[in-house]
From TrEMBL, chains A, B:
Gene Ontology molecular-function annotations: hydrolase activity, acting on carbon-nitrogen (but not peptide) bonds
InterPro entries noted in UniProt: Amidohydro-rel (IPR006680), Metal-dep_hydrolase_composite (IPR011059), Metal_Hydrolase (IPR032466), MTA/SAH_deaminase (IPR050287)
Classification of source organism: Bacteria, Bacillati, Actinomycetota, Actinomycetes, Propionibacteriales
Pfam families from the UniProt entry: Amidohydro_1 (PF01979)
Listed Gene3D superfamilies: Metal-dependent hydrolases, Urease, subunit C, domain 1
Natural source organism: Kribbella steppae
Amidohydrolase-related domain mapped to chain residues: 71-418
Protein name: 5-methylthioadenosine/S-adenosylhomocysteine deaminase
CDD domains, per the entry: ATZ_TRZ_like
Length: 457, 457
């Protein structure tokens, strides 16, 4: 058993509802992969905690990390991304959503190989861990390679192997087989089924996916109602909204993580409400503004029917970073704008979405997303001493509106120190960057022609 | 004469129109406060440059800064801020615009003293310089104290001493006298006249301000048409828009920097067009979203009539940072959203607003805002080697959508190295932070009652 103590740290407490608070002068006690107690500095874990799991006295700690002057926050969750797309960062700028897909991204993705995906995923894991992201929820090709990168880096991941209907039943079968294999590759890896979207996967394939998901206990992670235009197009073509497609194919019944959902309309809410216990939505607003999608995820409506909402970056080919601090700030700002209410999406609610909401999106609602005894020790120690954060009248506001990823000092995932003093402990960053630079040109090469798919939702 | 060379650096060239480009492998030659030549690395400045100003050979450089692996960008301009409000960072969160002004900010400002303003301004200058902001355009009280902080830090500043009509003619006279004195305090300080807004300064006082501005060569920096509501209220109360107020009082004729202008309507454009050569607008979109103002600056319309637009942070009591990288990213994103056009406000145009646009807003259009021989040597060396920027398919996109202020390595203002290896050379940051922390509580104390003004535009 390893026993680690983070000594004399401020702790961000994110309750299930209501205001977050910051407890100063705390010790976080971590045994193996779990938080076992949070006590006032220097106080032995409570008798209750000792009775539960035999927590040792602080003196017995095999490692003590000095948290003085730092704030411990639950590790952030990137609730929706395509991590290897970091390899295309900056290669598709200032384009309409149609051109972004059809002139750049889907033609580029004919260049995907297992090696290139792995190199991209390693870079993505490095970027996320250094920024305090301890879990990511991914949707991409060659997901086994992404799992290997996640395992090497020490990050936690839920991975959905992507498939389209257009590539035929064998490719779908292979993606589902990969989803079955992923959790066997090592710890901290879970998987979901990954049909691409309601507009690229047929109802028949969605139905079969839902059947497998229900039978084998998978959740389904997919794109749906990404834009209002997609919803209107679905109504025009099929007479139903994307949410109705998800219901009639059994996807909602199986349990779904819906990426974006900006085109979810008020009449969809009663449908979603029936599956509120197993439906989450990931919001990635930087992308909605950058692609001029016209609207953002209707979080207020979704929360009103009991859905959990997480925050994601989407892929870096459009978001340019995998920075969840940036994303959560964008959520706060764009939700206030959407609702025309500056009091809405306050700092506590924003932090809750990025942590507890993300945990739900990852299918890990009881395991991560809060700093509490019994949960996994996934956390980041953040330094608010920089001139862009000082003076600190409200640490929660500093975390939402001032902090930068470069303020993350130390990161733990499942009790393992994966970032120490702003350096990765698990990977050689120079090597990760050099590999990515070497291969970057191969991903954006459009000389071969073709595309993995055509965007015409 | 001092002669400094930045050796082997990539240079961001921001033309007056069209695409920005990055020239690799360049030497930037700096004599005293000016750029005298930009040459291929190792090449002696051109005969032309030598003939112009007697540039010495590189061997004679008194200092050589190695720019290998870095990109030199024109120092960013914060086109509208209230720098000492960093002291209130995080003290007025999740509030409507009315409550933000009337319950927090204007009651807090009864606590302003010269010392508190100076301590805040020192912190603000530190934050901005470390983030590559080399010029700021300020609007606040006790502007002489802000000038002293700017002088100490080495930053460039245009300062407008704020006044309301409600505080009487003597206070106005004092503010104008301060504006007259500021440039005498030292180099790199210019001043503007600072009536607060069209809704807090009477037409009569605006008219008198415009007369003085025209007579003495000042520009006028003020808030106008901050929101659509203000424009509607002006029409309801006065029968004219805020832009019409600015015209009829002579403010536009004198030359104005208009903060925000989100409520500028299409019929205002022909009015503004008559003064396009001397009118600039500063856009601070993080604030418009955070206060749920309902709209953002109509930059497309303003540019269509030839106005220059700069990017600002506004005060940190609402923007939380003075980070112009963050602001320029928000401009790109919110302008795409506003125009429902992902091709609009492309990376080159965004970078131009933050540099040349800001220079115009500061009244320094010919002196800063671009890396060109003959201009002031105000620049930042930025490191794009971090995992959040790599691989770099397009450095311009990295600067707009990936970079963080912490990627700024070295900063020069007027040829002086003010940040070296991410450390201020001009001030002791620990001392600056300690002073700010000591006094922060005095600024947010509401026990005295009263307010400097009431928001009822």
């Amino acid at each position: 058993m390893s026993y680690l103590v983070i000594r004399n740290v401020s702790v961000l407490i994110v309750p299930e509802s209501g205001d977050c608070r910051v407890d100063e002068g705390q010790d976080i006690h971590i045994e193996d992969d779990q938080i076992t107690a949070i006590t006032a500095t220097g106080v032995t874990p409570s008798a209750a905690a000792q009775a539960d799991d035999g927590a040792a006295a602080p003196e017995a700690a095999s490692e003590v990390i000095d948290g003085t002057g730092l704030i411990a926050v639950p590790g952030l969750v990137n609730s929706h991304t395509h991590s290897p797309m970091v390899m295309m960062r900056g290669a598709a700028e200032d384009l309409s959503i149609d051109d972004w897909f059809n002139q750049r991204i889907w033609p580029m993705e004919v260049n995907l190989t297992p090696e290139r995906v792995r190199v991209g995923a390693r870079l993505a894991c490095a970027e996320m861990l250094l920024a305090g992201v301890t879990t990511f929820v991914d949707h991409y090709f060659h997901a086994d390679q992404i799992a290997e990168a996640a395992l090497e880096s020490g990050i936690r991941a839920d991975l959905a192997p992507t498939f389209f209907s257009s590539t035929g039943p064998e490719a779908i079968e292979a993606a589902i087989a990969t989803a079955r294999d992923l959790p066997t590759l090592g710890p901290r890896i879970t998987s979901s089924l990954g049909p691409h979207a309601t507009y690229t996967v047929s109802d028949e394939d969605l139905r079969r996916t839902a059947d497998i998901a229900r039978a084998e206990g998978f959740r389904i992670h997919l794109h749906a109602a990404e834009t209002e235009d997609q919803t209107q197009s679905s109504l025009d073509r099929l007479g139903v909204t994307p949410m109705q497609v998800l219901e009639r194919t059994g996807v909602l019944d199986a349990g779904a993580l819906i990426a974006h959902g900006c085109g979810i309309r008020d009449p969809d809410l009663p449908i979603l409400e029936r599956y509120a216990d197993r439906t989450t939505v990931a919001s990635c607003p930087k992308v909605y503004l950058k692609l001029a999608m016209g609207t953002v995820t209707p979080i207020k409506g979704l929360q009103s029917i009991g859905l959990q909402v997480g925050i994601g970056t989407d892929g870096a080919a459009v978001h340019n970073t995998l920075d969840v601090w940036e994303s959560l700030r964008m959520v706060a700002l764009t939700q206030k704008q959407r609702e025309q209410d500056a009091e809405w999406m306050n700092v506590s609610d924003t932090l809750r979405l990025a942590t507890r909401g993300g945990a739900a999106a990852a299918g890990l609602a009881d395991q991560v997303g809060a700093l509490e005894p019994g949960r996994q020790a996934d956390l980041a120690l953040v330094d608010l001493s920089g001139p862009h954060c000082q003076p600190v009248h409200d640490a929660r506001a500093a975390l939402v509106y001032s902090v930068r990823s470069s303020d993350v000092v130390t990161v733990l995932v499942a009790g393992q120190v994966v970032v120490r003093d702003r350096q990765l402990t698990t990977m050689n960053l120079d090597e990760v960057l050099a590999d990515a630079k070497d291969l970057a040109h191969t991903l954006v090469d459009l000389s071969k022609g073709g595309a993995v798919q055509h965007y015409a939702p």
